[in-house]
Specification:
heterodimer; A: mainly alpha; Arc Repressor Mutant, subunit A; 2 domains; 0% strand; globular; B: alpha+beta; four-stranded antiparallel β-sheet
């Protein structure tokens, strides 16, 4: 995805509705991607994205123009996803993800449902760090701004996520 | 794609699939734009016109100057010393200066002194919604014993603020309520400036 035009962000910060609409148009597929990988393909993911953009709209006047937009945006989106996960846990509505069926696994490329199932087995912190680093392309320094975690902790989360995913995928491939 | 995945035959297809962007969702976009149709109330420093702001500032300055002649600004509340960076916000316990208008008292701004104990710091800046979170706009001054102070005229109401040490370290105030809207930025503390 192309980097967002700083001028577009500046106009949105200044309250330009048209600029904000363009920002939503350009950014929402990426936001949906992250939310779906975090929460699965569920209405919760769409709600998290909608809530994120509403909060972004309200918070834009406080965004420092010129500073990186991605960490600021993903901090809000990440918080919304964590809140949704916490609500699921509280409500006890989160059903255990089914075992990754052997017949559904390991084709190359994977199906998106398979990817969601595998990712869902990671602890949320590892899943978030893995997605931000390997899917969204943020640096560890930017992820630190998003999550508030230290750099070494983030590197460890990503490494553990990769180890877990690799082991799981090899396991189901040979099942 | 990053190298450690690029050359991983197991993870590479997973990441390739995970990176697929979903189709745009016009219904979701419409809901977002409908939900944000109400204009955001801009911060006061963005809403005020220059003449209005200048007049209010001038009035506040004059009033504060007149009051200070009779009532000096209350010194910063003593705080415990520390070797480490320890922020301390000193609330405007008193010198609250109402601004006089022709019809009586009309508070436009209230002088607030912020204090911060940071003996090891080279620079300290005050940031908040009142200065656009600009980490260079409001430098604090050394006041001795490792304390940094800054006097700011604030509009009555709720403000969120933080301290920036040596240009990189953002610290909230442990003695003030934490802002609930942390995810809007770097986090901050809440100060309620009340009309006297």
């Amino acid at each position: 995805m192309d980097a967002l035009d700083p001028g577009l962000i500046a106009r949105a910060v200044d309250g330009d509705r048209q600029a904000f609409a363009e920002l939503v148009e350009r950014l929402h597929p990426r936001a949906l991607r992250f939310a779906h990988r975090m929460l699965g393909d569920s209405p919760d993911a769409d709600d998290a994205v909608q809530d994120t953009f509403i909060r972004v709209w309200k918070a834009l006047p406080r965004f420092r123009v010129g500073s990186p937009f991605d960490p600021w945006f993903f901090k809000i989106l990440g918080n919304r996803c964590r809140t949704a996960l916490e609500k699921r846990r509280r409500d006890m509505t989160e059903t255990l993800e089914p075992e990754l069926a052997a017949e559904a696994a390991a084709p190359d490329p994977y199906q998106l449902d398979d990817v969601h199932r595998v990712l869902a087995r990671l602890p949320a912190e590892q899943r978030e760090a893995f997605l931000l680093y390997h899917v969204e392309g943020l640096s560890y320094e930017e992820i630190a701004q998003v999550t508030g975690a230290g750099l070494s902790a983030l590197r460890m989360r990503v490494k553990r996520a990769m180890d877990t995913l690799r082991a799981r995928l090899v396991e189901v491939t040979h099942a | 794609m990053r190298d450690e995945v690029m050359h991983d035959p197991v993870l590479r297809p997973l990441v390739e699939t995970a990176r697929q962007l979903p189709d745009r969702n016009p219904a979701l976009v419409a809901r977002i734009l409908a939900a944000t149709a109400t204009p955001v109330r801009r911060p006061w420093w963005q809403r005020w016109t220059v003449p209005a702001f200048a007049m209010a500032t001038l009035a506040a300055t004059i009033m504060v100057w007149r009051r200070e002649a009779a009532t000096p600004m209350v010194p910063a509340v003593a705080t415990s010393g520390t070797d480490s960076v320890q922020p301390t916000r000193v609330a405007p316990a008193s010198p609250v200066a109402p601004v006089a208008s022709g019809d009586g008292v009309l508070p436009a701004t209230v002088p607030v002194r912020f204090a911060f104990d940071a003996a090891a710091a080279t620079t300290v800046h005050l940031v908040g919604d009142f200065n656009g979170w600009d980490a260079t706009a409001t430098p604090m001054q050394r006041a001795g014993d490792g304390r940094w102070v800054s006097d700011v005229a604030l509009a009555p109401g709720r403000h969120v603020y933080a301290f920036v040490v040596d240009g990189t370290q953002w610290l909230t105030d442990p003695h003030a309520p934490r802002a609930s809207d942390d995810d809007f930025g770097q986090g901050g503390s809440v100060l309620m400036v009340r009309v006297p």
